[in-house]
Structure prediction request, 195 residues.
Amino acid sequence: MSSDIVYTHIDALSSLSSDELKKYYDKIKPFRIWVPQWLSVGGNMSVEISPGEWKKFGSNYDEYKEFFETLNHDEKFYLVQKIPFDCIGDSYLYNNWRIIDEFDEEDQIFVQNRERYQLLQLFGLHTYGGYHGFFRPDLKEVIHLIHKQIPIQELEMIDRIYVTTQMHPSEKIYECYDSKADRHRACTTCYILKQ
Prediction:
């Protein structure tokens, strides 16, 4: 873990009113970064070959490993369904990663190439879903982190904010859990499109 990263404790941020939260919510478009991944349950191997689509290999490690190495491991970006506004404080940020198929021309540009957007990365300590093994930052926490860097007065100059939150410093749950703070370390990545 990089020693120069400071994680903002969500409880330390000033609270926003419902109207202020809604202004940020309306600008946000959640996305997911996907790469193939593997899972072993009881010695049975499976590979996620596209978001939500798994290929099972049973206990044949050699077959799984050979197949996994043939996959394209480049990151792919997908827009995902945003949870309803009235659930932003008590639901997982990305609504189970439901990929959306309908999006406008700007969204299409975003999923293909992010060079034209301003990048902002925010590091926070997030709550979790009842058990520290569940990584479940909520959208209200993410909005408060964004507000810390983008004051509400600047929102008028922003068309949209593409956002995702991932475990940090790695995708391993035990490495992102901070036992002293009883929170998960996470990096919220924003791609900002100004008007």
The CA atoms of residues 47 and 67 lie 9 Å apart. The mean pLDDT is 86. The chain is about 20% helix and 35% strand.
